[in-house]
Design goal:
- This protein is mainly alpha-helical and 185 residues long.
- Helix content is 46%, strand content 8%.
- It is built from eight helices and three strands, in the order H-H-H-H-H-E-H-E-H-E-H.
- The chain has a three-stranded parallel β-sheet with strand order 1-2-3, with helices on one face.
- Helix 7 links the parallel strand 2 and strand 3.
Length: 185
């Protein structure tokens, strides 16, 4: 898929008005803390546990942040976090597939080091070629590994894109990923 088509697809997924990188009213300290957890992929329940609040209170925080940032979705909150320079510097996308999402992240966030993993060696070879074609190969490592056994620890964010529905045990990667990152909570 040509890079322009990938960018257009990413823009359609993110939706219009993904988030205002400079909102007129800054989120509160607590809202910034919640926003970091949303950007790290936490559910409301996980946010509640991490911050010692109820799931409902976390839901209200997320709703209020979306309103404050004019963000139509949680993706908009993550975009705001990234624009504010608070996004992680070391990121794995634990299921890389053909590398499209990892390459997009490398293009959008040039200070990040990314790692992509997939169990299919042919997909990894193609992802490496695509990263080289996009000029971001020096900041992305693609390796063969399953979502349950990808290597490394100390990641700032662990993400999976368009893959959980294909897994025999879709709850395993989030459980395992929680031990691989060093973000808040």
């Amino acid at each position: 898929m040509p890079q322009e088509a990938v960018r257009e697809l990413a823009a359609r997924i993110a939706g219009p008005g993904t988030a205002d990188p400079a909102p007129t009213v800054e989120p509160t300290a607590r809202q910034r803390e919640v926003a970091m957890l949303v950007a790290a992929g936490h559910t409301n329940r996980q946010i509640g546990r991490a911050l010692g609040i109820s799931e409902k209170t976390a839901e209200i925080h997320v709703h209020n942040i979306r309103e404050r940032l004019n963000a139509p979705s949680r993706t908009g909150i993550a975009t705001w976090v990234a624009h504010r320079g608070r996004l992680a510097r070391r990121l794995p996308t634990s299921v890389a597939g053909l590398g499209a999402s990892t390459i997009l992240m490398a293009e959008q966030y040039p200070s990040t080091q990314l790692a992509g993993y997939d169990y299919h060696d042919g997909s990894i070879e193609l992802a490496r070629k695509r990263a080289a074609d996009a000029g971001v190969a020096e900041r992305i490592t693609f390796d063969v590994a399953s979502a349950q056994d990808f290597p490394g620890t100390g990641y700032d964010l662990v993400a999976t894109f368009d893959c959980l529905h294909d897994m025999g045990d879709p709850l395993a990667p989030p459980r395992i990923s929680g031990n691989r990152w060093t973000g808040p909570g």
